[in-house]
Amino acid sequence: MMHPATRLGFVSEAQGFGVFATAVIPAGTLTWVRDEWDIVIPAVVPADLLGTVERYAYTEADGTVLMPWDHGRYVNHACKPNCAGLQAGIDLAVRDIQPGEQLTNDYSVLGTFEQFPCACGSPNCRKTVEPRAVDAELLGAFEAARALMATVPQPLGERAVRWLEAERPQARKSSPGRTPRVMSGRLNLR
Ligand SMILES: [Zn+2]
Fold this sequence. Notes:
This protein has helices spanning about 50-55, 135-150, 155-165, and strands at about 5-10, 15-20, 30-35, 40, 60, 65, 75, 85, 90-95, 100-105, 115, 130. By secondary structure, it is of the alpha+beta class. A hairpin with a 5-residue loop joins strand 5 (about 60) and strand 6. Residues about 170-180 have low confidence and may be disordered. Zinc ion binds near residues 120, 122 and 125.
């Protein structure tokens, strides 16, 4: 589920829709939390649904392929994102996000997919988005955001704790042999 201070908005003909902040979302805020409504994509996808799945689903840090049920599926890629989800089940703001600003994730660390051209506008845009390992910069930003979690309002906090510590089902591995890039640990929200 996306943070309540976000909305779906049109970006451009090329990019389609995206998710925008409607209020300040400070670094360390949970911007998305997995819940029981999200759609777990099975290993075999019917050919007529492949396009939709490739566009809107992604691989969670624990290997689950997931399509968010709400506007979370419209979060776009950026080479220098303001959100990151390096722990299964959550995304965090890795810097302060201003009202009207688009929420973004770095798709290159979200599983395997066909490469595609990027025009995200970041000064460090890699021009091509393709699967790669998490780099030190993104990992450092995510860890710094985790350290701020207890210091900022968390509208999704209760849901995150419930999902991660109580209701989370056994993770289904999309590729059993792959090394998960999951970070573990309880959420320090209080
Ligand atoms: Zn880019």
